[in-house]
Design brief:
mainly beta; eight-stranded antiparallel β-sheet; six-stranded antiparallel β-sheet
Length: about 850
């Protein structure tokens, strides 16, 4: 019998697929976890609790299949969160709804939006509409009347509670402030009421009241200009690309085209000869090219006469043989359809995929986003291209990265890779890089790669600088169970966390696969993230991020709301059944209720009150059982509904004039921001005068929540739109607090596998071993359990009563001594649901072999 020490101290491969459990001889086995729920790994190998989310707002839409969510980085000023839904765009700043814009887009069009940012323009394209631009402009100046040391009063009424960008103007002199405001610089107003504002440098400072500007004077004839007028209008194009849609079905050989002049903006082209009468008004904006000349069609008088504006002169006014000409329509129009995909690259606006030309790709003139005229080929002119392969091609996505990657139904194409110069009409091409088609999600560029989801597979398109090409590699194979029917993906650069590059992949079931990548350190793995509630369900819907290391999620949640009271009509004395008029409670899920009365409550054991939630399960018809605890009600259902369950409330007398009020579940959609300030989901933040109850709105009624108050952890149940901080039965005042849903973190190491001898193929995975002890090393950790045993890292002498817990580093040892058949014994499961962090550095074994 040999005594061995063995360790696992790298978890960067994340949660491994069940198919990996027997592959103990590969590196991934020893660098991954059997389960990693709500976990983020660190490039250095550790594993810890994932981020929390901070509640921002309840959103207005009702159909999750008709919503599009994205961020809008507005220059260097701020990041807006945009929520598109049926006929509306809601515009949020720091989670505050600051504007709404009406649109004509329906659910299907919204759900399939493609978007890009062009400076101060947020452009969208999609199915069945001409592209739109969302733009911001200034309102009329609002005169400054009076000031206080911290506020400015305005002449015209404003909307209270908003955080809005502003600039200052003055006929004579600007206000004197500390720090001093400057003309042409954007600041942010926090609207204290309908007339007064505070001034801040950033939107974040304005929301939280940080670094408020001091106001000395209001200036002379000075005004505040609110930059919060939004317009959603069709994109304006000075020129569009052209295409000969009739060239394959029409012969121009029998026709001649005679220009009335060789140059000019009103040159008439006369058509002669017998043939196809094809000219109509749809050709306006198209092109006529021939005899050395290039011109754009400006009017069509008849089938035999049209007017052009000459861009390159014709050789002469002699008739031009039809077979030597190009007669083209606009490639985009109401007749032929508009681009459905948009992007941007190298100061060019990009479009692709019209209903008539699904493989069409278009790039604008450099620094001239409305101009897609492709009649000339100077280096800065517009580009048109139509990639083809051995099949029908249609463009689904454009992803700008080291090059332009164009993703079609047959594979991935790229613009030129062999040089570092800008793309031009003369050097542009789209070459097939890989036959992996993107599925339904927009690929993302991150960490020297483009990540492409094709079905449930995640592919790396790696940039190979030596060969000037992209190479494909499937990266999800060892974590295949984490991606299931993905519906959204977002890149995220966690600037506060060294070496962290993530992609959030949201699945149809509301879970999220978090892909972490750091190619230079060979870090590549997936973990799963889920949202949970004690009552009802919650799940991720969509996500978006910004370049400053922030991310937001749209979350679908079920919340409890009071329904109409039901009159209690009967009880079963000495038994558990109660009846109420038209009750019909669910027989498969517990329902939260409260009791009310204008007379006397029924007497019961234990005695019910009007001050807490109870849980009921329907029996048949209007009859139901009542439980004090939700888990008791759920257990009764799981046990098969035994008669008179011991954990149910027993009734003695009916009482009088009493009602039971169901708190039924209703679906809402919330905007929540990623945060590392707290390890709670949908957390409500409070910072103010010490209180023992924090108003949380409707979020937590009948829900079990976790809280942090002034550094201490609390458990609570929401009620009356608030949550009380209670310690040992005593209401406790707190001044800084977070209240939210717990994040249930689970980390389970892979079964112990020790290599034997020099060959990497030798392993003790299934060989009987006797594990004497396991030592778990933690960092920055408060709380948690291992197989139900509380994790204790500090000696009792260091646990100072009355002081908040502080994150600890240390080793927690379990003496196992379970015999030799360790492979069949339960694994060692680390669980953590406290509103604090946990970081696992390594697992160290003492083993007899």
């Amino acid at each position: 019998m040999a005594y061995e020490l063995w360790s696992q101290d790298v978890f960067s491969r994340g949660e491994l697929s069940p198919f990996m459990y027997a592959r103990a001889t590969v590196n991934e086995y020893s660098n991954g976890l059997k389960q990693a729920q709500n976990v983020l790994t660190y490039p250095i190998g550790a594993a810890g609790k994932r981020f929390g989310t901070l509640f921002q707002s309840i959103l207005n839409f009702t159909n999750p299949q008709g919503m599009y969510f994205q961020t809008f980085q507005y220059l260097n000023q701020c990041v807006y969160q945009l929520v598109f839904y049926n006929s509306n765009i809601d515009i949020y700043l720091e989670g505050i709804l600051i504007a709404n814009v009406s649109t004509s887009l329906n659910d299907t069009q919204v759900f399939n939006i493609s978007s890009t940012v062009l400076g101060v323009i947020f452009r969208v394209a999609g199915i069945g509409f001409k592209p739109y631009d969302l733009t911001r402009s200034a309102s009329s100046p609002n005169g400054i009347t009076t000031t206080s040391p911290t506020t400015i009063s305005l002449t015209s009424a404003i909307t209270a509670g908003l955080v809005v960008p502003i600039t200052f103007t003055a006929v004579t002199s600007l206000p004197i402030t500390s720090p001093q405001v400057i003309l042409g610089v954007t600041y942010f107003a926090k609207n204290i009421n309908t007339s007064d504002i505070e001034v801040y440098a950033t939107a974040h400072d304005a929301k939280f009241g940080l670094n408020k500007f001091g106001i000395v004077t209001g200036g002379v004839s000075a005004s505040v200009v609110f930059e919060n007028t939004w317009t959603f209008a069709h994109s304006v194009f000075t020129n569009v690309p052209v295409y000969d849609f009739n060239g394959t079905i029409t012969s121009y050989d029998a026709l001649t085209f005679t220009p009335s002049a060789v140059v000019g903006s009103g040159v008439t082209i006369t058509v002669s000869g017998s043939g196809y009468a094809l000219l109509d008004s749809s050709y306006v904006g198209g092109a006529f090219i021939g005899a050395g000349g290039t011109s754009r069609i400006t009017a069509v008088a008849s089938a035999t006469s049209f007017t052009v504006s000459v861009e390159m002169p014709f050789d002469s006014t002699d008739p031009i043989q039809g077979s030597l000409t190009l007669l083209a329509e606009p490639a985009w129009s109401d007749k032929r359809g508009w681009p459905q995909v948009c992007s941007s690259y190298q100061n060019r606006a990009l479009f692709a995929n019209t209903p008539s030309l699904p493989n069409g790709f278009y790039a604008s003139v450099i620094n001239d986003y409305p101009n897609f005229g492709d009649l000339t080929s100077d280096d800065d002119d517009a580009i048109s291209w139509y990639p083809t392969s051995n099949n029908v091609n249609f463009i689904k996505f454009i992803v700008p990265y080291r090059s332009i990657t164009v993703h079609t139904n047959t594979g991935i194409y790229s613009s030129p890779l062999s040089d570092l110069v800008a793309i031009t009409p003369s050097n542009f091409t789209l070459q097939l890089q890989d036959s992996t088609p993107a599925d339904v999600l927009y690929p993302v560029a991150i960490d020297n790669q483009v990540l492409v989801l094709s079905g449930n597979d995640a592919h790396q398109m790696l940039w190979d600088g030596i060969n000037n090409a992209y190479t494909s590699n499937i990266v999800s194979i060892i974590n295949e169970q984490t991606i299931r029917d993905p519906v959204d993906e977002t890149p995220f650069l966690a600037l506060h966390r060294a070496g962290s590059r993530f992609v959030f992949i949201i699945n149809a079931n509301g879970s999220m696969a978090i892909y972490q990548t750091l190619i230079s350190e060979n870090v590549s793995g997936f973990t799963s993230a889920i949202m949970e509630q004690s009552y009802g369900n919650a799940g991720f819907l969509q996500s978006a991020s910004s370049s400053d290391g922030r991310a937001w999620f749209v979350v679908q949640r079920q919340i409890a709301e009071a329904a109409s009271p039901l009159t209690i009509s009967a009880i079963s004395p000495g038994a558990t059944a109660m009846e109420a008029t038209s009750a019909a409670f669910s027989t498969t899920q517990p329902t939260a209720v409260i009791f009310t009365t204008s007379g006397s409550l029924p007497t019961s054991s234990p005695q019910i009150t009007t001050e807490q939630y109870y849980w009921v399960v329907g029996i048949v018809g209007d009859a139901f059982n009542v439980f004090v605890l939700q888990e008791d009600a759920a257990a009764w259902i799981a046990d098969g509904y035994p008669a008179n369950p011991e954990t149910a409330i027993f009734w003695a007398t009916l009482g009088s004039d009493s009602q039971v009020v169901p708190w039924t579940l209703n679906t809402i959609f919330t905007l929540e921001e990623l945060t590392h300030d707290t390890f709670l989901d949908c957390a409500v933040y409070y910072n103010g005068t010490p209180v023992n109850t924090v108003d949380t709105g409707i979020l937590f009624n009948a829900q079990n929540v976790k809280m942090v108050g002034d550094g201490f952890g609390f458990d609570g149940i929401g009620g009356n739109n608030g949550v009380a901080f209670v310690a040992h039965g005593v209401y406790t005042d707190v001044s800084v607090a977070y209240i939210g849903f717990p994040i249930n973190t689970i980390m389970e190491p892979m079964p112990l596998s020790m290599s034997n001898g020099s060959s990497p193929k030798n392993t003790t995975l299934t060989k009987p071993k006797h594990i004497r002890t396991i030592r778990f090393m933690f960092n920055n950790t408060i709380g948690g359990t291992i197989n139900g045993v509380p994790i204790s890292l500090l000696p009792f002498s260091l646990a100072n009563i009355g002081e908040p817990p502080f994150p600890a580093r240390g080793v927690f040892e379990l003496s196992v001594m379970k015999g030799w058949d360790d492979f069949n014994n339960p694994s060692y499961v680390i669980e953590h649901s406290e509103p604090f962090n946990i970081q696992l550095l390594g697992v160290f074994y003492s083993v007899d072999i």
